[in-house]
């Protein structure tokens, strides 16, 4: 199954990219994505099969989804300076922005081709979900979050939109879905996006030698908790306000990590995450979909990667 999707990705890349050097570069990124078990394309497949979908195009559709997510992952890594060992992090930002454009435009072009044959998917909706995700990413990198309400609005845009996209491309090609059930699946996808991002933000609050949200002055849920109680933890506010430098902050790394452990910010964030998990579980039970694909979908969105 995954090899078939990977082959479809590579065929698409070869079809739309004529310049040999660029083609080889994007093919190498596709190969790297294959090592991650094509997580996103499986969401598309399960969302198709759980509504009794039998489209002959579904593996190509899943490959298109994976290509869009690959472009999104590359953009995210560049902006966050994360996963530095990935092949796309070994090239200039200018080159990679060009590659991202090529991948997204190739994917949208292929959706248009399939839609002319099937008239099943709204390419405008696909574009809208991509744009929403980029809007959320812009809020994130600009740190335009000052409250929990703004934080969750950002997650809805940045994380939930993409998971909704993966699901939408799957169920759109099924003739057996109904609006009530697909609306529930859209809501489940939104909840899954928030649950995943909360997991990432909880894991990234402790200062280590790897990616850390505090050092980048991100405003995640645990950070908002710390800033809300800044009278108890003035060093956090001082760093975010520019009163102390990054180097001075790092000198107090052990003290800061102890503050994080003692503050309750992790426990608070986990309580909020559990509220979303409980809501997901309750809604999932009411989803009318075919087994085992329904259960595979749940297991997949509960897997943090």
Automatic annotation (TrEMBL):
Its cofactor is Mg(2+). Keywords: Magnesium, Metal-binding, Transferase. Pfam families: polyprenyl_synt. Belongs to the FPP/GGPP synthase family. This is Polyprenyl synthetase family protein. SUPFAM superfamilies: Terpenoid synthases (SSF48576).
């Amino acid at each position: 199954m995954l090899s078939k999707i990977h082959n479809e990705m590579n065929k698409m890349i070869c079809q739309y990219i004529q310049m040999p050097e660029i083609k080889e570069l994007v093919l190498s990124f596709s190969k790297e994505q294959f090592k991650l078990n094509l997580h996103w394309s499986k969401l598309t497949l399960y969302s198709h099969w759980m509504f009794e979908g039998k489209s002959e195009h579904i593996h190509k559709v899943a490959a298109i989804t994976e290509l869009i997510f690959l472009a999104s992952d590359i953009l995210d890594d560049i902006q966050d300076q994360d996963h530095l060992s990935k092949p796309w992090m070994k090239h200039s930002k200018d080159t990679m922005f060009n590659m991202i454009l090529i991948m997204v435009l190739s994917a949208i072009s292929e959706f248009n081709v399939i839609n002319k044959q099937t008239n099943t998917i709204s390419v405008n909706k696909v574009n809208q979900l991509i744009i929403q995700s980029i809007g959320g990413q812009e809020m994130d990198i600009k740190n335009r979050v000052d409250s929990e309400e703004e934080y969750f609005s950002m997650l809805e845009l940045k994380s939930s939109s993409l998971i909704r996209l993966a699901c939408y491309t799957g169920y759109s090609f099924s003739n057996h879905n109904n609006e009530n059930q697909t609306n529930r699946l859209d809501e489940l996808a939104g909840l899954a996006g928030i649950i995943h991002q909360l997991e990432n933000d909880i894991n990234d609050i402790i200062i280590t030698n790897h990616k850390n949200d505090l050092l980048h002055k991100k405003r995640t849920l645990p950070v908002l908790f710390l800033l809300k109680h800044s009278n108890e933890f003035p060093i956090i506010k001082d760093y975010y306000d520019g009163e102390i430098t990054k180097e001075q902050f790092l000198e107090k790394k052990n003290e800061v990590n102890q503050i994080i452990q003692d503050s309750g910010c992790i426990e608070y964030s986990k309580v909020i995450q559990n509220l979303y998990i409980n809501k997901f579980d309750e809604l999932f039970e009411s989803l009318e979909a075919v087994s085992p694909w329904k259960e595979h979908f749940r297991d997949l969105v509960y897997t943090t990667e």
